Amino acid sequence: MRDPYQTLGVAKGASEAEIKKAFRTLAKKHHPDTAKGADAASKQRFQEINTAYEIVGDKEKRGKFDRGEIDENGNPRGFDPRGHGGPGGGANPRDFHFSWNGQEQEGAEGGDIFSELFGGMSGRGRRNQPRRGESYEIAMTVSFEEAARGGTRRILLPEGRDVDVRIPAGVKDGQQIRLKGQGGPGGNGGPPGDVMLNIAVAPHPYYTRDGNDLRMDLPVTLKEAVLGAKVPVPTLTGPVTLTVPAGANSGTVMRLKGKGVQATGTGGDLYVKLVVALPEKPDADLKKFAEGWKAEYDPRAKLR
Given this model, what pLDDT does residue 296 score? Predict the structure, then answer.
């Protein structure tokens, strides 16, 4: 048998998801219940695909193969398959069986993955049974604002069909949205598959999210911090005015109630941390003032 990675058409460093996807594609193509005019060659090809996946689709066996502890058939290096299957005699524990009349099927994840691929169909005896349609898994990136406030996106499915997706307010990075019945059509009257959207939320230039609360740093001038001022603050629903108290220090946190993520049933707040910012260019008047300033205090006293 060929190298299992070559058999599945994937690179040696392929991820588990990439390996599974390659196996699903090849298994569907060469399975005797879907391959047209299945002959001995195609049956052999299907067996090779299944055996390859049993090795590289299993984390432990894949590691052993990569380290050279087992060969492409899953046998320990130096094992003679013409003996009697192993040190203890008997059949090779990796023997593969497939009965073309639909009575027996064994191999890599046979029960689970073939049920997933063919809706529980095993052999020609069940060819006419209803089969669930294929489910699609799609990655989708949404903006920070879309995740916080919700919205609608139109996506293109693998078969070329457009679907409008409602993004719920408050969706989180890594969350999965299920579109029931929007996948591939079922066979013989079976139900359609689903669409699973894996959501990634793009970062925001100044907001960070903490549950349904938002946090941000707000630069203020030295004059605004010393004397107090009313300053504009950007929010998801537009700018609002924040009153900075006189004598405010860097690190002072102020809350804008209800200006966070407004998820269904619960809303968050926006927490603004004041950061005193000096002019980017040297200011002669500020330098002269600082040189003549007589106030004495130790801002690092709490660090001792």
Answer: 85
Each residue's pLDDT tens digit, 15-56 = 988 998 888 888 877 776 655 555 667 778 888 888 888 888
Measured between its terminal Cα atoms, the distance across the chain in Å is 71
Q: Is 28 exposed, middle or buried (0-12, 13-18, 19+ CB in 10 A)?
A: middle
Return the closest-CA partner of residue 75 out of 84, 66, 85, 60.
85
Q: Which two tokens stand for residue 93?
A: 């524990």
Distance CA(227)–CA(236), nearest Å, equals 28
Contact 190, 132 (CB under 8 A): yes
Angstrom distance (rounded) from CA 23 to CA 10: 10
Which secondary-structure segment (H or E) carries 287?
A: helix 284-292
What gap in Å lies between CA 72 and CA 40, rounded to an integer? Answer: 21
Percent of the chain with pLDDT over 70: 80
Question: How many angstroms separate the CA atoms of 103 and 118, rounded?
Answer: 15
Q: What's the token pair of residue 190? A: 């079976």
**Which residues, at least 6 apart from 283, have a Cβ–Cβ distance to it below 8 Å?**
none
Per the listing, tokens 């994937």 go with: 10
Determine the Cα–Cα distance for residues 182 and 300; give it in Å rounded to an integer. Answer: 61
Yes or no: say if 185 and 133 are a contact pair by the CB < 8 Å rule. yes
Q: Which residue has the higher pLDDT, 287 or 124?
A: 287
Q: Is 267 helix (H, G, I), strand (E, B) or coil?
A: strand
Reported in sequence order, the residue ranges of 11-98 that DSSP labels E, i.e. its strands, are: none
Please provide residue 294's backbone torsions phi and psi, each rounded to the nearest 5 degrees.
Answer: -95, -5
